[in-house]
């Protein structure tokens, strides 16, 4: 094995161990909230992007729960109709340095009990950065949503 291949394997192992031992899910809301336009979260403990699977999840189940159980394709169609791309934007801010990352690309997911919007950390952004303020801007009234930050495998 050449030096570069070994180096890549070691880096991959370090990334795997970070994910394994440092994965987290942090609820940003203590319960359901309503966002009409914009909401700012000033975090007492900052969140960190450990990998490019880091994301903001917005559980919108309360707004669309009548569609739960209609099937994955139907549920995903409903999510994309009610929350079109660009209607919700998330800003991650590191206040002391003034750094700001904007998450624009929404993903939709559904399970037996929930329907969610997901905003992944961009591949062109630096990993390991901590953010102490999160701003959610929405053109759609977000009623009774639960919001969390996740880093996962």
Looking at this protein, list some descriptive labels:
about 25% helix, 4-stranded antiparallel β-sheet, 3 helices, globular, alpha+beta, 6-stranded antiparallel β-sheet, Jelly Rolls, 10 strands, about 150 residues
Provide the number of structural domains.
1
Spatial separation of the terminal alpha carbons: 27 Å
Q: Please report the first level of CATH classification, the CATH class.
A: Mainly Beta
How many DSSP-defined strands?
10
Strand content is: 35-45%
CATH topology: Jelly Rolls
Helix content: 10-25%
- Rg, rounded, reads 17 Å
Helix-strand pattern, N to C? Answer: HEEEEHHEEEEEE
Largest sheet geometry: 6 strands, antiparallel
Mean pLDDT: 87
Could you please describe the fold and organization of this structure?
With about 150 residues, the protein is of the alpha+beta class. It has one domain (about 25-150): Jelly Rolls. The chain contains 3 helices and 10 strands. Strands 1, 2, 4, 7, 8 and 10 form a 6-stranded antiparallel sheet that branches. Strands 3-9-5-6 form a 4-stranded antiparallel sheet, with no helix packed on it. The chain is globular, with a radius of gyration of 17 Å.
In short:
This protein is an alpha+beta fold and 153 residues long. It has helices spanning 3-22, 61-64, 72-82, and strands spanning 24-27, 33-35, 38-48, 55-59, 88-94, 99-103, 106-110, 115-120, 130-138, 142-151.
Tell me the layout of helices and strands:
Blueprint: H1 3-22, E1 24-27, E2 33-35, E3 38-48, E4 55-59, H2 61-64, H3 72-82, E5 88-94, E6 99-103, E7 106-110, E8 115-120, E9 130-138, E10 142-151
Antiparallel strand pairs: 1-10, 2-10, 3-9, 4-8, 4-10, 5-6, 5-9, 7-8
